[in-house]
## 1
Amino acid sequence: MNRIEIDKLTKFYGERLVLDGIDLSVAHHEVVCLIGASGSGKSTLLRCINGLTEFDEGNVRLDGMDIYDESFGRTGLYKRIGIVFQAYNLFPHLTVLDNITLAPVRVHGRQRAEAEDAARKLLDLFGLGQYAKSYPEQLSGGQQQRVAVIRSLATDPEVLLLDEVTAALDPELIGEVLKIIRDLKTQGMTMVIVTHEMAFARDVADRVCFLDAGRIIEEAHPQRLFSSPENPRTQKFLERIIASGRLGASA
Amino acid sequence: MTRRPGKGRRTIALKDRLTPVLISLVSVIIVFGAIVYFVGSAEQWPRIQSQFFSIEAMLEAAPSVGRGFLVSLQIWIISLVCIAIWALILAIFRAMGGPYFAPLRIFAILYVDLFRGLPALLLVLLFGFGIPALNLPGLPNNGLFWGGVALVLSYSAYATEVYRSGIEAVHEGQGMAAKALGLTQWQTLRYAILPQALRNVVPAMLNLVVALQKDVALLSVLGVRDAVREAQIYTARTFNYSSLVVAAILFLLATIPMARLTDYVARRDRQRRLQSAL
Ligand SMILES: Nc1ncnc2c1ncn2[C@@H]1O[C@H](COP(=O)(O)OP(=O)(O)OP(=O)(O)O)[C@@H](O)[C@H]1O
Ligand SMILES: [Mg+2]
């Protein structure tokens, strides 16, 4: 059974069709990258997977169970699927440590001391140990984004959704975030990643899906998709990317 | 002669700084001096002075007006606390989405429409005279209490809107992040949104605080012996208005520092936002 099964997912914003019958499945430990032009629906698709955005038709299943199934309870789904946003969305009024422990303590009923221990371990692991008591604004963008990743890992999710997590970063900070994602892949995390970093997608993805106007019009292993795209729209998209020099050597 | 590089520049800077200060000082002295001269030389001035600015009458009225002013301050502070809490509750009602909370949301909307639409003085009269006349069992029966309630109800409507704008100013990504972490709507408000919203609203709230301090004087129509009422009593007895000037001075002594504080906080807040926007 696949970890995530998406069936004929359709989503309208008002009159506008944003997702047009998406079918997508993600196996255990698989890393799927979503690429596509701005406005093609990548973020919306990601947010439908963990129920942040309601959709109109179709369904999404996690380990065979509909995400709106009662048995997930109110928080079960959010515990098992973590999401990281492009703009980090850390809470500016909370320290790094409190950002990370908020959900474990308030949502999952862990003891504060226990949650803080776990958070500190994660911070050390990602080289942010000395920033536990800092506020987000005191950190660099790359550090903030790493904290955001840790925050979503703090509840031990089985699936991680990443939405252009490097788009707001300076080039020299991108590497440190991408390294974390590679490490997570090594540890077997199932991930769906929206990215504009084609080199990274080629490097980390087991499969790349190209979205166009709310549809997945081509999906394949990155080697195949990047070297010999079949759909003319994919070809055009990749040509534009190559022209802008973003399909270079692996980062 | 050896000169350190920065020195000459610093001298010029000092002169540059002093010139505008001197100009404003001189112009202020000329303008206000002229006003004082013309007022003082007016034919009526001695009469005005004895009616409004008689030192003797001021000193005589000061103790009772001062006592009244303490009453005003008490009403002000107690009302402030009640308004801050009640308006926050209403703003939370207003912010809760979803069908279950619709009644609370509608209540908050109607409340704000109603109490913002009515003049505070009208409410003070209605509550301060009307409710005690009902002789309701188990409820306090004095005008001061009900007048205070009227002020709280009226100002809470404005304060609710201030809170609401503060809540709406918090970036929507914050609510989304909280939801994605599994926080309930209430937890999202409590731990993610409100702490940021409260910081946003401090400058606007301080404006209300200053306005309320003056509107406490409305309670004098109910016979509450606040500063204005005490001053009126003195005036009625002696036909001298200096007591009202005493009350005016007391109000200014309290509100002007508040106004400066408001400016200061607003300026700091603006800088904080500018910085975080970078
Ligand atoms: N909250 C919303 N209300 C209305 N329309 C929306 C909303 N969010 C997204 N859309 C629309 O849905 C479409 C898909 O948006 P989405 O954010 O999923 O695109 P995207 O592929 O992530 O683009 P980008 O690469 O720019 O992030 C866009 O046309 C967008 O205008
Ligand atoms: Mg997007």
## 2
Amino acid sequence: MSKAKENKKPKRWVGTSLRRKEDDRLIRGHGKFVDDNRLGEMLFLKMVSSPYGHAKILKVDVSEAEKLPGVVCTLTGTEVASLMQPFMEIGPEPGAKIVDYPMAVNRARYQGEPVAAVIAKSQAIAEDAAELVHVEYEMLDAVVTGEDAIQDKVILHESSGTNLVWRGLYEWGEVDKAFKEAAYVVNIDRLHFHRFTAAPLENNAILAHWEPDGRLHFWCNNSFPTFAIQFLAPALGLRLEQIHVKTEDIGGSFGVKITHYPQMAVCALASRKAGGRPVKWTETRTGNLTASGHCNERTYRNTRVALDKNGVIQAIESRQIDDCGAYTRYEPLGAVIWSQVVPGVYRVKNLRIDFAQVVSNKCPCAPIRGYSRLQHLWFMERVLDICSYELGIAADEMRLQNYIKPEEFPYTTPNGCVYDSGNYPKMLEIAKELVGWDRWVKKQQEAKKEGRMIGIGIGTTLDSGTNNFGQSRIINPYAPFSGNSEAANIKVDLDGNIVVSLGSTPQGQGHETTTAQVVADELNIHPDMVSVRTGFDTEWNTYTGHSGTYASQFAVTGLSAVHGAAQKLKKEMKKLAAYALQAKEEDLEFGVGNMGPELRVKGTDKSINYWGLANLVNVNNAGLPNEIAELTLNCRYIYRPPFQIPDLKRKYGNLTLTYAAQLHIAVVEIDPEMYTPKILDYAAVDDCGTVVNPMIVEGQVRGATAHGIGAALMEACVYDSVGNMLTSTFSDYTPITAVNMPKVHYGHIESPSPFSFNGAKGMGEGGGAALHAISAALQNALFEYGITIDDSFTTGNTLYDALVGKKVMQRANNVKVERGVA
Amino acid sequence: MRDQIPLVPIEVKVNGKSHKLEVEPRMLLVELLRDGLGLTGTHIGCDTTYCGACTVLLNGNPVKSCTVFAVQADQGEIMTVEGLAKDGQLHPLQSAFSEQHALQCGYCTPGMLMSSYSLLSKSPSVTDKDIVKGIAGNVCRCTGYQNIVKAIQLAAQQTKGR
Ligand code: FES
Ligand code: FES
């Protein structure tokens, strides 16, 4: 951003690409991440993890480890189970019968599951000692796919007696009638959405200090701490008030850092056992990849699609199995959260989805970027795309035929969600222009003559934000949460500075900056004059039971709270200034004078600065009249979106407040010798309503695009048949690098949301657009070779097996079209 | 036992300041910087020399400090992210990263800055391809890289212009 822009104050700060407030400390190497904390007497914890995917634990012998000089104590699963209650389960039975401790007790259920921990004076000693812990295992058969797990031949949790966590039938509209009247019915036997993970560059890290007087402190990088402490407190037998949680800079989360409360419990117990000394645990990358959290893996069986003669989808039915890994943790919320986007961006009204969730011998899942909706949106995009080829309708035409039309917003989906605003055809038009669609179509034809395989694919997707926690009741009618909320506190400090505190846990989203933009506009001051305290902190900052940074909501929940608090403060400031200046409130205006930010009587030089106001309230208040004396200049506001509890029988209700949209186009070529797919061109168009900071929004879009491209072509959590994770280091997992990243042409439109105070929509997750677009591009290149893209992960190997080996992705084995009666 | 292995005396110059220390032979350079000297700007992101979050300059060359023993740095000159700004004034690369929004969470940033510093100190005339190659060993999970390339290019232009 140019100097001129910074000096010349724009009319409004909201809407400008203000350089971020948080950058200065980060570019100087002065950021404060958990691992940067050093406390006196601090100890180091190392987990001993199961090398097996599924095994009985016969014996854990820590005696040798404890003898090593420098080792303070150890913990084993059995001991942990004797010191705490199992974590609560969100869902009903049978999932609720799972007994979940933060360490394996008698049985390890995924590779990397902690079975013991050693606590020592240094990290190096802890690591040495971990090697001296002897664990005897008896390997058990493992179950590593959802489709196998649901057969219950190998059962993970004896207490539950089944691998099924939750199953429910979602049905809306008149599905049978639609199939009866269809012109075409397309059958797709099997589609599969693969496992990958968020892999934030900073691994999980926790510093726990359980003081002898009972107070428990956590410095951690958990991204939804209020959720974490509500799990931890009952499990550890504490009142919430005894737990102090603090987050500071967080090196990325993308949702995966929501579910490390089990490790928080282990660190707490370790600290107590070590006599109340602080204990630090920093996860290794292998620990992060094997035992932190993966995205939900989903298999879609027996999908049937009813279409009319123009290719407009009339109905969809499908049987889906979601594999959530070895423990439920945040699940089975994923079994309902997908239904925020039931029809995707399309007008289909009749759906029947038989949804089951199961456990397997893999790492537990976490609500990772795009959580549960991206799996469903990929499914919808595959369905639409496959049908377009089967019916011989061009993929772009097919989309235009099926999109919800711009004039139909606000649009009520078959399950009662209200899409606030949008314009998908316009986004398609812009993306086509950005990528040079016509030029590529021509090139594709020419390349075909040379035997080259080039495909162009579209992915249209949604990023639903500000969710209604009431949807959890569709899973469990007794779940004690609903609605949503966020808090902000704003005060004029004793010295006249404006200080805002939030309940969010930003991990790069720039909340300090966007908050300052909103406040600066309200008070007519410069954003530099606003100090913003982010990071969740039960003692230092304000929060509600929903506080945190997840599910694309800050622009709505966080900034609404900031805006509300600023309104309250302004009212108080005016009242106080009117008293001090002996003026009428309506004659006052906010601005900046020679003595800094102030309120002044319009058209005069009579003014009082913020220090003057703060002084009156805090240190110079003798003789103030009562109605003035009650002012605090310290205002808290809680934003609460207007949600109702859904109709549980019909599984019907408004599950999310805003629906940002993404449309990506990918041009992909398949190497004729190596079969590796390579991106030749790429465009991403975003619509998240009114934009608060264009630079930050574009940054989020680019980041989500990289995650999606990585996930589509490079990144997968691959397991063998006994539950060994084969991609357990960065060298195997191969997170996308600059070398693999194509140049992304970026565009955007703004369809303001009618449901947020500022027209903004939550964004950042990106809806997996890149996955959809790349699958579509590959489909476009390979349909004529008899290939149906049926998996969200494609590599050169898969394409070789498909094109040469004819073993996978064979359309003939997967897709059948019936002509209907119509 | 390991703690009976004798400590090794070393001397290093970090960001212009000399330090005499005694270290365990197995201590990594990144541990020396973070734990020994409190320079926590250098980060750790992996255990297979893949991510580059730990990149620093050792005798003018970029190294992944998680894969160098502290004793290997004996008598060496090290520069970390904390050494980039002079008298509080940001290095052009640092300003460019902020201006181009080349960081989100900022965890990769110190490593990215050191890799690009090394690249530009060889020659400020770089193509985008050179830059991509120069940061091929640095992972960023937030930005999608494009703004990082832009920032490095901007700093290169500014350096050339001086
Ligand atoms: S920590 Fe050194 S390369 Fe990852
Ligand atoms: S900015 Fe977060 S990893 Fe690069």
